[in-house]
Amino acid sequence: MLQVAVIEGLPEVSAGDDLVALIAEAAELEDGDILVVTSKIVSKSEGRMVAADDREQAITDETVRVVATRATANGGLTRIVENRLGIISAAAGVDASNTPDGTVLLLPLDPDGSARALCVGLREATGASVGVIISDTLGRAWRQGQTDVAIGAAGLQVFDDLRGSLDNAGKPLAVTMPCVADEIASAGDLVKGKTSGNPVAVVRGLGRLVGDLDLPGAATIVRPVEEDMFRTGTDESYDEGYRDGFAEGQAEAVGS
Amino acid sequence: MLQVAVIEGLPEVSAGDDLVALIAEAAELEDGDILVVTSKIVSKSEGRMVAADDREQAITDETVRVVATRATANGGLTRIVENRLGIISAAAGVDASNTPDGTVLLLPLDPDGSARALCVGLREATGASVGVIISDTLGRAWRQGQTDVAIGAAGLQVFDDLRGSLDNAGKPLAVTMPCVADEIASAGDLVKGKTSGNPVAVVRGLGRLVGDLDLPGAATIVRPVEEDMFRTGTDESYDEGYRDGFAEGQAEAVGS
Q1: Has the keyword Translocase been applied to this entry (chains A, B) (predicted)?
Q2: Which of A70, A186, B151, B241 could covalently link to A238 via disulfide, CB atoms 3.0 to 4.6 Å apart?
Q3: Partner residue opposite A223 with nearest CB, options B5, B96, B143
Q4: Do both B89 and B162 map to the same domain?
Q5: What is the CATH number of the domain that holds A73?
Q6: Residues A183 and A117 in one domain
Q7: Distance between CA atoms of B180 and B113, rounded to whole angstroms?
Q8: Are A133 and A217 spatial neighbours (Cβ–Cβ below 8 Å)?
Q9: Are residues B11 and B134 part of one domain?
């Protein structure tokens, strides 16, 4: 049995606030609990709200690589970009919802580090051996809508590595590596929602995943670009190939 | 508060078994419950196990479009393909785990239809207004590992459509459309696991999402190919562009 509940009564978070103290006071944590903390409040506590009249410019500033772009029906531009964490998304993690006009909220500089600091602090403050996930909302290449995923993690296994396990029929589960951190982040979103004002969920019943503080973080979930079969969009890749091919074709024809 | 629990005591499922009867007998369902049913047992009950000495050939047979391929370190080939449901995955939904040697399990022919039949049957058998999700395990373009998603759904909203809602700061949540069906499937996987032999989870606490039987199914989650910025892999798209560009470059040089 898994139980997922929001922590009620957390105040609005501002720069410099001590999230460990706020959470430890509002929640009764037990060994094996996993906290799913919306990245937004981590960013706010870390002072990552910046002045930005133009969200599009802020996205450009946070982008390290443009993956794909496409014109939208209303004359805008959908941009899929890689941010400095290697995460590929539509807005580089730049959040203009739930922020005052003229400001945007950037992602934490080091979400795994933020998760570890929260995890260490909460374990000390409460005596409970907990895990911490920092969640954000991402779109997907081939599926519509968004799901919450883990962009930071500490004190838990982010993958339930079943490679080498046997199925019920006694055959090896060859390539199965469920990303439980992303699944837990999604479960947390189902109770936190986007409009409820409850930015932290506690997931109880997955103590088997909770462990040492030096377990790999959520950065290990990001697929390295050299293994990414979709590292640039279809149109962008075609265009690049076309340019290269055109030049080669001309050169060959002229040279022959 | 969300509760996610497996239904214990379900027997091994075979072709022709009445899943409604099996589930209704094993579970005490309440209004608002959402069942997450592993596609594997739906396939088995629908007789979708087929003889196949060669899983790779079975994948080829189920493929309607090759999206991307890449050689693996051990001399094999990773294939990302679109199956007849439009779902893009590494194995076209062909499952060779938990099946006898020499057989593979194909996806249900119409997972939304299967979900609807289950939903209708369970509502009749139990009197409880429940929703049904049929889940499968998919990889992701930019993130390692897999998560469970909804490939069939009935009797619930698959998206929590927040477009037009206001955030806490009173600003519109422009493009936010959480795919709650996928998030619920992921939550179900956290208790079902891949090796536990418990193929059905009950999610309690999301009655707000449960509704009419004619709500759109999981087919609406699949992004239409014409809106898919990653409809073919980077290398495949580049190569296609290169061939076209090369031919054009040659023709232009010759014609000038």
Answers
A1: no
A2: B241
A3: B143
A4: no
A5: 3.90.1660.10
A6: yes
A7: 19
A8: no
A9: yes
CA B47, B52, B54, B59 dihedral sign is negative
Q: Chain A: give the shortest CA distance to residue B125, in Å.
A: 24
pTM of the predicted model as reported, rounded to 2 decimal places = 0.95
A-chain CB neighbours of B72 within 8 Å are none
Contact of B144 with A177, CB cutoff 8 Å? yes
Question: From the CA of B21, how many Å to the nearest CA of chain A?
Answer: 23
CATH, residue A145: 3.30.1330.100
| CA distances for A106 relative to A26, A57, A92, A134, A178, angstroms | 26, 12, 9, 14, 28
Amino acid at B35: L
CB-based contact A17:A37 (threshold 8 Å)? no
Report residue B147: phi and psi, to 5°: -135, 155
> Which of B190, B229, B249 has the CB atom closest to A180's CB atom?
B190
Dist. CA B11–CA B21, nearest whole Å: 12
DSSP A199: -
CB B158 within 8 A of CB B217: yes
Give CA–CA dist B16/A255, Å, rounded: 68
Same domain for A112 and A147, yes or no, is yes
- Containing domain of residue A73, as a range? 49-106
CB of A41 closer than 8 Å to CB of A20: no
Are residues B126 and B143 in contact, defined by beta-carbon separation less than 8 angstroms? no
**CB within 8 Å: B68 and A229:** yes
Measured in degrees and rounded to the nearest 5, phi and psi for residue B153 equal: -155, 145
Q: Are B111 and B135 in contact (CB under 8 A)?
A: no
pLDDT digits (tens, 9 = 90+) for B178-221: 999 999 999 999 999 777 789 999 999 999 999 999 999 999 99
ipTM of the complex: 0.95
Nearest Cβ partner of B145 from A101, A179, A242?
A179
Whether the predicted pLDDT of A172 surpasses 70: no
Do A114 and A180 fall into the same domain? yes
CB contact under 8 A, A194 and B179: no
Which positions of chain B have pLDDT values less than 50?
Answer: none
Quote the number of domains for chain A: 3
My answer on whether B141 and B216 are in the same domain is yes
10 Å CB burial of residue A1 (0-12, 13-18, 19+) is exposed
Same domain, A93 and A144: no
Which of A90, A106, A122 is the C-terminal boundary of a domain? A106
Tokens of B223: 């992004």
Separation CA B184–CA A191 (nearest Å): 11
> Residue A190: its chain B contacts at CB < 8 A?
2, 180, 183-184, 187, 206
A5, A171, A250: residue with CB nearest B253 = A250
The residue in chain B having the minimum alpha-carbon distance to the alpha carbon of residue A198 is B168
